[in-house]
């Protein structure tokens, strides 16, 4: 009988301990904006997923889609740029305490654009249609003001062709 009680007590303690150190996940969605060379801005969405286990180090993934356009006026017409930007990054996050974490990411970004020139009383002329894929990087801060609430702010950057992309993202997530 004492053996059975000891086994049941050990099982209860181990179950309670494992629930304290259970894996947690966070899914967040937010706004992303990037400044591109020559005054063009892209705007869109960012989603992040974080997986935490019994360690202060965890895994974070981030994906963004952004789009933007800009007109540059001239005396005889105008140039127009349309840009689409996609990125997928992953990397470690480090939890300092229940409230604050930081992360660093690396991955890939892809951009495509369309540059047209419009003159008075003429159809648009396609000047360039650049596409490029390159290494991207990011870093950020995550705050958990409540156990199930996550707020994140981050930086993301890359260079596609001859254009620098430097942006930020902010998001809110649910931790479960």
From TrEMBL:
UniProt keyword Transmembrane, yes or no: yes
GO cellular component, one term: cell outer membrane
Pfam families cross-referenced by the UniProt entry: OMP_b-brl
UniProt keyword Signal, yes or no: yes
SUPFAM superfamilies: OMPA-like
Location of the protein in the cell: Cell outer membrane
Membrane-topology descriptor: Multi-pass membrane protein
Keyword annotations of the record: Membrane, Signal, Transmembrane, Transmembrane beta strand
Signal peptide: 1-22
InterPro entries cross-referenced by the UniProt entry: Bact_OM_Invasion-Related (IPR051723), Beta-barrel_OMP (IPR027385), Enterovir_OMP (IPR000758), OMP/PagP_B-barrel (IPR011250)
Domain Outer membrane protein beta-barrel: from-to ranges: 9-176
Cross-referenced PANTHER family: OUTER MEMBRANE PROTEIN PAGN (PTHR35892:SF2), OUTER MEMBRANE PROTEIN PAGN-RELATED (PTHR35892)
Protein name: Outer membrane beta-barrel protein
Source lineage: Bacteria, Pseudomonadati, Pseudomonadota, Gammaproteobacteria, Moraxellales
């Amino acid at each position: 009988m004492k053996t059975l009680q000891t086994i049941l007590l050990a099982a209860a303690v181990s179950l309670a301990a494992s629930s304290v150190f259970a894996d947690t996940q966070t899914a967040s969605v937010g706004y992303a904006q990037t400044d591109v060379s020559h005054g063009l801005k892209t705007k869109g969405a960012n989603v992040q997923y974080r997986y935490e286990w019994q360690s202060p180090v965890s895994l974070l993934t981030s994906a963004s889609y952004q789009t933007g356009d800009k007109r540059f006026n001239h005396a005889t017409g105008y140039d127009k740029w349309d840009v689409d930007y996609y990125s997928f990054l992953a990397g470690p996050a480090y939890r300092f305490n229940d409230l604050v974490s930081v992360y660093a990411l690396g991955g890939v970004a892809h951009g495509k654009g369309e540059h047209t020139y419009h003159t008075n009383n003429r159809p648009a002329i396609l000047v360039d249609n650049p596409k490029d894929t390159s290494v991207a990087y990011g870093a950020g801060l995550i705050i958990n003001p409540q156990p199930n609430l996550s707020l994140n702010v981050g930086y993301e950057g890359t260079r596609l062709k001859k254009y620098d992309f430097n942006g930020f993202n902010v998001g809110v997530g649910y931790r479960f």
